[in-house]
Amino acid sequence: MDALSLMPMKFILRLFPEISIKSKPVRNRLIKNLQQNLFNVARHHGYTVHVFSQWDKLIVNFDEGVLSPEKAVSELSRIPGIHSFLEVREFPLVSIEDIFEKSRDVLGPMIVGKSFALRVKRRGHHEFTSQQVERQLGGMFKAHYENLGVNLSHPDVTLNVEIDNDKVYIVTGRHKGLGGYPVGSQGEVVSLISGGFDSGVATFDAIRRGLKVNYLFFNMGGTAHELGVKQESYFIWDRYAASHRVKFTAVPFEEVVGQILERTHHGVRGVILKRMMVRVASKIAKRYGVDALVTGESVGQVSSQTLINLSHIDRASEVLVIRPLSLSDKQEIIDKAREIGTAGFAESMPEYCGVISDHPNVCPTEAFILEQEALMDADVVDRAVEKARTLDIRDIPEDTARLETEVETVTELMPGDVILDVRAPDDVERSPLTVEGHEIIALPFYRVAAEFENLDRMKRYALYCDQGVMSLMQARQLKEMGHHNVKVYRKE
User: Fold this and answer.
1) Residues labelled catalytic
2) Could you point out which of 173, 243, 253, 436 has its C-alpha 20 to 30 Å from the C-alpha of 353?
3) Residues 6+ apart with CB under 8 A from 125
4) How far apart are CA 146 and CA 447, in angstroms?
5) Mind listing the pLDDT tens digit for each residue in 138-160?
């Protein structure tokens, strides 16, 4: 075993550049935030980390035998506030010859058959300059290993050595960090997360920018949808923001959706839905002592996201609304979701689209929106807030395990099966369902949970919707409620 491999594994963390240019008090505060976040993440994931602060970097090492180098790199690459980091081996500074002897077995083979350059960064007072170390140490490597010579402009391989006062660091790996600010250093927000591509990426962007993010989900589709969103929220938190305890809140929104669909003009339903969401969200945010919301909206992506409609939505909120993706296109968002690991959730959990009109109004007047909202119950928002359920995000794994429910999906019906069409009334009217030999009952998804118990319990019900998503969600919710005479019907 070579001498270098016996030395402790350490990492030199370079700060996000915007941190380095801050005033000394601000920089010190951000560095302390990052240090504490490193400790908190390590505690959550079950290992110990040691952190030492310097002016523009942090020195980090892990307890030997707890984490592999690969795992350590993976952990550090997902912590906001770190621009990049070097994987290094540390030993005392004795002489330039000693540096060569301790590092030759690892660094030497890297230059065989290649051109190379050796770069030295030095800090402290020494009898030699960085350039003198580069020339002398580089000459030793050149003389002892077959290579194509020194090339300072475009080398095939660059060997890196750092001398910091009485210590030497041999760089064995260079890695890119997440960048951004340390989580929690820029304040706290509530993110409206739906399970789609957009809200997951927007949540990640808020975390990367140093915000402590709580999660808020509006449940319009039953237990299965909530289960999926909880799992995605926990994934994002555990992977990128486990340094802070945050909340996950679910708001039953079926009543609000029902009133929108039954009472308001189809051209502004999407805008009214979003206004109701931010109205509820801002009340919950203020309850938490939080001053801003995060949403995944992008200008022009859908009819409710024109500039005019976004301004209408903003006026319904009592707190600031932040839209990290406001100028991103859909493909950029999807690509980012794949990069951060949330795409799989979005692909298996289509975004809710139950309040969409064939002819949306992209520039309604505020007076018309307010007129339509007045048709809804004045206290419908307060009732939604009262029904909100909050849990510590760390409890989601246990909570979601309890909610897992299997539902049979069929393409052929049994004699006597009753089809329960859970589509919105407009969809039923546009495309009536007919299946010979079977009774069909139209019961909109937002009324299923409340009215299913009024149906004949001796019959079997096959829930149906166009995509099979809402029907599956409602069937799972009914099973959770103790109704086992349900399944999902998918037309071939």
Assistant:
1) 465
2) 436
3) none
4) 77
5) 999 999 999 999 999 999 999 99
